[in-house]
Amino acid sequence: AQRVTQPEKLLSVFKGAPVELKCNYSYSGSPELFWYVQYSRQRLQLLLRHISRESIKGFTADLNKGETSFHLKKPFAQEEDSAMYYCALKRSSNTGKLIFGQGTTLQVKP
Amino acid sequence: GAVVSQHPSWVICKSGTSVKIECRSLDFQATTMFWYRQFPKQSLMLMATSNEGSKATYEQGVEKDKFLINHASLTLSTLTVTSAHPEDSSFYICSATTGGDLYSNQPQHFGDGTRLSIL
């Protein structure tokens, strides 16, 4: 069965510190991985996807198939990064369905 | 662009009533819409996939007679919780994509969600 695990419910860091939000997945095929973010009182929005290999708002994430991970990283956290982050998996085979992790709340303290 | 509107944002009703939630794509045509359910402090759980003009595909464990989904146009899908009971209280979120379910490259755009409270 496909599963996405985000082991940390809450990650609290100080402004300027590096951030890594962990995401592990289990899927036997070739998945497509995403990070979604939900800022306070806003809707869920796409942050980045692994196939794009881009950096959004300073965040990057690399798909590691050996470790089945897709950790989200940012070298210097900003207060405006405080939000709920969800890792999500889409199966490769003809489906748009997303499987979400439990989410991690990132709290960036001044 | 790519705005999804969900209505109502919050509804409280008595046990036994039916509640309809609307999901609209405001500036694009949504071939596929997804309905999720989220319990407090838990993840989004996909309930069903709705393709315009066809029957919805429900995930395992989701009662299709309980959660009626209609996707009659390319900009509107509705979720009706029939004969709602307190255990149906939850946060319901829809998303829409321009790609059909077969075309997985199109991103999903999410609505703000509907908080349903059944007394």
What's the gist of this structure?
The complex is a heterodimer of chains A (110) and B (119). Chain A is mainly beta and 110 residues long. Helices cover 0% and strands 44% of the residues of chain A.
Lay out the secondary structure.
The complex is a heterodimer of chains A (110) and B (119).
Chain A: E1 3-5, E2 10-14, E3 19-21, E4 24-26, E5 32-38, E6 45-49, E7 60-61, E8 72-74, E9 83-90, E10 98-100, E11 104-109
Parallel strand pairs in A: 2-11
Antiparallel strand pairs in A: 1-4, 3-8, 5-6, 5-9, 7-8, 9-10, 9-11
Chain B: E1 4-7, E2 10-13, E3 19-25, E4 32-38, E5 44-51, E6 57-58, E7 67-73, E8 76-81, E9 90-97, E10 109-110, E11 114-118
Parallel strand pairs in B: 2-11
Antiparallel strand pairs in B: 1-3, 3-8, 4-5, 4-9, 5-6, 7-8, 9-10, 9-11
What does the model show?
The complex is a heterodimer of chains A (110) and B (119). Chain A has strands spanning 3-5, 10-14, 19-21, 24-26, 32-38, 45-49, 60-61, 72-74, 83-90, 98-100, 104-109. With 110 residues, chain A is mainly β. Chain B is mostly beta strands. Chain B has strands at 4-7, 10-13, 19-25, 32-38, 44-51, 57-58, 67-73, 76-81, 90-97, 109-110, 114-118. In chain B, a hairpin with a 2-residue loop joins strand 7 (67-73) and strand 8 (76-81). The termini of chain B are far apart.
Q: Into which percentage range does the β-strand content of chain A fall?
A: 35-45%
Query: Fraction of residues of chain A in helices?
Result: under 10%
What string gives the helices and strands of chain B in order?
EEEEEEEEEEE
Main β-sheet description of chain A: 6 strands, mixed
What's the helix count of chain A?
Answer: 0
Total helices of chain B: the number is 0
Mean pLDDT of chain B: 89
Outline the low-pLDDT stretches of chain B. none
Which pair has the most extensive contact? A-B, 22 and 26 residues
Strand-pairing-aware structural class of chain B: mainly beta
Tally of DSSP β-strands of chain B: 11
Q: From the alpha-carbon coordinates, what is the Rg of chain B to the nearest angstrom?
A: 13 Å
Task: Tell me the major beta sheet of chain B.
Answer: 7 strands, mixed
Count of extended strands of chain A: 11
By oligomeric state, this entry counts as heterodimer
Q: How do the SSEs of chain A run, as a string of H and E?
A: EEEEEEEEEEE
Low-confidence stretches of chain A: none
